[in-house]
Write a structure and sequence with these properties.
By secondary structure, the protein is mostly beta strands. The chain folds into three domains: about 120 residues, Immunoglobulin-like (Sandwich); about 120 residues, Immunoglobulin-like; about 110 residues, Immunoglobulin-like. The strands form seven sheets. The protein has a six-stranded mixed beta sheet with strand order 1-2-10-9-6-7, with no helix packed on it. Strands 18-19-26-21-22-23 form a six-stranded antiparallel beta sheet, with no helix packed on it. The chain has a four-stranded antiparallel beta sheet with strand order 14-13-16-17, with no helix packed on it. A hairpin with a 4-residue loop joins strand 24 and strand 25. The radius of gyration is 27 Å and the shape is globular. It starts with 6 loop residues before the first strand and ends with a strand.
Length: about 375
């Protein structure tokens, strides 16, 4: 695990010495930007200053491994730019497999005696490490303080990582009635093809990072399951955790439900489920307002009834139908009382893992009733 501030050691008294530095990167695409000094120790802090400087000829970039050994000499040469970007695809092309820890060597040639001034910057990436976790379900609570939970299995996590040096991406969740969930390298790229894969929980806020809620989508009530969870940062996957068996029950008193007061309700029948939701909010009148966010891995067909109260209690309303599959999302509208003031649209969000349903129209308050199957 690498957790430190970026450092760069410069000796302005000896410009012939190799300058070294290192830092932590958060994404697979990495941009290196070098600030330079010419022979008279004048700073060069942008590309235009580099082009205009009469003492500097050109810069050559080499790719190095984490030990500083050159693995791709003259990767970018003859240019007059201080920056170089190594994308994930570039990284794989250079190293064969994605390599999170590597570096760039910059060689600066001067116009006077053709001396070369060299700087090397190494970068390190972090994968998530789950430090500890507490699992709770509908069975008797564990002795470590877990709460009894019905309708889902919850996992409260502690990470060894400092989030300053790591960007969490998601958790892949697997379940099986047998304690034999074996993962293979291909599962990292296409987990949906694994027979035990349930879905991914994306880490878009702090709660998503430290609490996993395993809902009975594709699972049966009253059945003990073994689970495996694989954490991912933007750099790659960390060590999986395994636990179980854990059981999901509909409620603490039985499967019969007589009255619920909630703005969100999930209904289950065997392995199938549907969701009923009630959402309220306000539109700004200036641009598209997001009125719902849908995770495409959960439900494929959604029906909305939308009502907007505006202009001194005037009501505009519509029904919106949405269909989602692996190729995209489609939206149709049936007007109830919409004379063209409301315009609905749907667009990907969060790297295509989610879709945002949006409306543009006058300023007002709205109510939205949603059915998802």
């Amino acid at each position: 695990m690498y957790e430190f501030e970026a450092v760069f050691n410069v000796n302005t008294g000896d410009l012939s010495a190799v300058v070294t530095g290192s830092g932590v990167h958060l994404n697979k695409d990495v941009t290196f930007s070098f600030s330079l000094l010419d022979q008279e120790t004048n700073p060069i802090q942008n590309d235009q200053q580099l082009i205009n400087n009469p003492l500097v000829d050109t810069i050559v970039f080499d790719i190095v491994d984490i030990s500083g050994n050159i693995v791709y000499p003259n990767y970018l040469s003859g240019g007059t730019t201080r920056s170089i970007t190594i994308s994930e695809a570039d990284n794989i092309s250079i190293f064969g497999d994605y390599t999170k820890d590597f570096g760039v060597q910059a060689r600066v040639f001067n116009n006077i005696d053709n001396k070369v001034f060299t700087g090397v910057f190494l970068v390190y990436g972090n994968e998530p490490a789950i430090n500890s976790y507490i699992v709770s379900d509908s069975s008797v609570p564990y002795l470590d303080g877990a709460q009894q939970v019905f309708g889902e299995v919850t996992v409260d996590l502690s990470l060894a990582n400092n989030l300053k040096y790591l960007t969490m991406q998601k958790y892949d969740i697997y379940a099986s009635t047998g304690n034999d969930i074996e993962l293979y390298p291909e599962a990292n790229m296409n987990p949906e093809y694994h027979q035990s894969f349930l879905y991914s929980q994306y880490a878009y806020n702090i709660e998503d990072i430290y609490k996993i809620r395993i809902k009975p989508i594709g699972l049966s009530y009253g059945t003990p399951y073994f689970f495996k969870i694989v954490p991912y940062s933007n750099i790659g996957s960390g060590q999986a955790i395994s636990f179980g068996p854990n059981t999901i029950q509909l409620s603490g008193t039985g499967s019969e439900l007589s009255f619920v007061r909630s703005n969100n309700l999930e209904l289950f029948f065997g392995d199938d489920s549907m969701n009923l939701g009630y959402i309220t909010g306000a539109t700004t009148g200036e641009s598209d307002s997001i009125i719902d966010t849908v995770e495409k891995a959960l439900y494929k067909t959604l029906l909305y009834t939308f009502e907007l109260n505006h202009e001194t209690d005037r009501i505009s309303s519509s029904q919106i139908k949405v269909a989602i599959d692996n190729t995209g999302a489609w939206l149709t509208e049936d007007s109830i009382n919409n004379t063209g003031q409301l315009i609905f649209s749907i667009a990907p969000s969060g790297g295509d893992a989610f879709y945002n349903l949006m409306v543009s129209g006058p300023t007002g308050t709205y109510k939205l009733y949603k059915t998802s199957i």
